[in-house]
Amino acid sequence: MTNALEISNLSFSYPDGRQALNRVNLKIDKGERVALLGPNGAGKTTLVMHLNGILLSDDGEVKVAGINVEKNSLFEVRKRVGLVFQDPDDQLFMTTVRDDVAFGPANIGMTGIELEERVNFALDQVKMREFADRPPHHLSFGQRRRVAVATVLAMKPDILVLDEPSSNLDPASRRELAEILLNLDVTIFMVTHDLPYALEICPRAAILNDGKIVADSFTRELLGDEELMKSNRLELPFGMHLDHIPHHR
Amino acid sequence: MKDSQHHLIDGSHQHNLTKFYTIPAHIKIASVFIFVLLVVLTPGKNFQAHLSFAVIVLAMLIWNRIPLSLIRKRLIIEIPFVLFAFFLPILGTGPRIDFFGLKLSEAGLWAGWNILVKATIGVMMSLLLSTTTPQRELLVGLEKLKFPKLLVQIMSFMIRYTVVVTEEVKRMAIARESRCFEAKGPKQWAVLARSGGALFIRSYERGERVHMAMLSRGYTGQLPLTSIQISSRQDFINGTLLPLAALVVILFWSVFLK
Question: How many domains, in total, are found in chain A?
Fold first, then answer.
């Protein structure tokens, strides 16, 4: 079986010479939910940008569903990788929710009823269908984040990549989004430093620090390793203990 | 912005809509455009024709229940033209006539009147168009009328991001004021300029991020058509009514004045 995502020996430095990724290796099976943990500036977002070829590697390779991410395969890759950006205002650029969700599928050639059905399907998955004709700025932040998820679900991606999905959400929106994500039948790769959220959604996690993958294991195991956590500037929120968090559903 | 205002601008208030609201956007745009074109082509000296145009426009505004307060607010955009029109009779050359006790240039008076009446009718017509058509449909309509695609895209982003950038401006202002900043005079201009610069960079960076988000979903330089607007023969006929009315006015008064 081909992996949903396979990153081998990926390195990347920015034009100013700063090395953001240093020989990163990671494999994700189909249907897995994996969190990528790491402190601010660890290179998480840079890694995400490589997954659909927004950034192309100097060194190493990224494979999505067996397809090598390179200049010639961008179209195929972007059909398969659904990237949800951190700020929904970056992601939602059309004047109505419906148009925005339709943008991706229309780009891959869908039209008419087929397109409409796809839009409704995606909006149903995030429970936002009734807001289809609203402009994005009339929605709450949590609703916009959900629509942002719908915009990529509409492309029926093989892998859903979320950059800090819980940031700026109030507790209820956070829970709603978690419920939605847990009910999706799709491979999830989630970048975050929100550890309880990672634990809730992803059974497996990897830690990225200083451009390197320094650990890759069960999320609960990683979070329980105090030494490891400390050395990577990761910690559970105040007053929270791993024993208080129920085991994975 | 208050919600009610939002809705007016979006043209998304759905109750008590007149027939004019339901005409497809591209027909409505063409209809309003041709009407204004005919008004502009009518010689300024045809006083009665312009009055008739004004009556038609006002009737349309009233029929479509456009609030007077909104009309007043939107007419502000006309002020530079009004000022210009106002100076023409004073600065104009040629024979002078007595106008309420003032010796004014006759050609200047006509030119001033011409600008004033045409600009007012034009502004009111565009107001009619913008309040009776949702923004999104306006864009679709323009695209259908073969307006350059790139411009339509730019306009679409403008609509979407004006709110985002305005919010950002407000947040920056609050952040300044929270630290006891008051823009009292030229001394503070440097701070304001720096805020402006920061805003520019933030917006530029947002532009980059938006572009990345678009690329991620397969953008190749063209916005795909995500909706189809179907127009009936009846829509087309309704659309011809406004230009037809203008034409009748012109013909009637040019015959009548002879």
Answer: 1
